[in-house]
């Protein structure tokens, strides 16, 4: 009698172990999904930070003329009326003669 109960319990334990390690939603798949979730959360955090910086830049451009002026100067080479523009040219390094 005890042997049959023990045998049934061992078969049930084997079936549960099979499902745990090799079944439809096994532990390996769960671990892989957890890694994917962590990677996605890190990507989301980076994108959220980028969006925050872009939003701050947009607000700065909408509210203040200094940011707009700085961008016009640095990216487009614009100057104000009455300003004098000086362009410094670096001399080319001398090449050694043979």
| Strand fraction | under 5%
Low-confidence stretches: none
Q: How much helix is in the residues?
A: over 70%
Distance between the termini: 103 Å
Number of helices: 3
- Please state the CA-atom Rg, rounded to the nearest Å: 34 Å
List the SSEs and their pairings:
Elements lengths: L1 H21 L4 H37 L1 H12 L22
Helix pairs in contact: 2-3
Pfam families: DivIC (PF04977)
Membrane topology: Single-pass type II membrane protein
Function: Essential cell division protein. May link together the upstream cell division proteins, which are predominantly cytoplasmic, with the downstream cell division proteins, which are predominantly periplasmic.
Structure description:
Residues 23-98 are periplasmic. InterPro entries: Cell_div_FtsB, FtsL/DivIC. By secondary structure, this protein is mainly alpha-helical. 71% of the residues lie in helices and 0% in strands. Helix 2 packs across helix 3. The radius of gyration is 34 Å and the shape is elongated.
């Amino acid at each position: 009698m005890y042997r049959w109960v023990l045998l049934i319990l061992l078969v049930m334990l084997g079936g549960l172990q099979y499902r745990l390690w090799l079944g439809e939603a096994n532990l390996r798949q769960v671990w892989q999904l957890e890694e994917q979730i962590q990677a996605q959360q890190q990507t989301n955090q980076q994108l959220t930070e980028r969006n925050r910086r872009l939003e701050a830049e947009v607000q700065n451009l909408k509210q203040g003329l200094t940011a707009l002026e700085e961008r016009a100067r640095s990216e487009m080479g614009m100057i104000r009326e009455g300003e004098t523009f000086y362009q410094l040219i670096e001399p080319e390094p001398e090449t050694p003669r043979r």
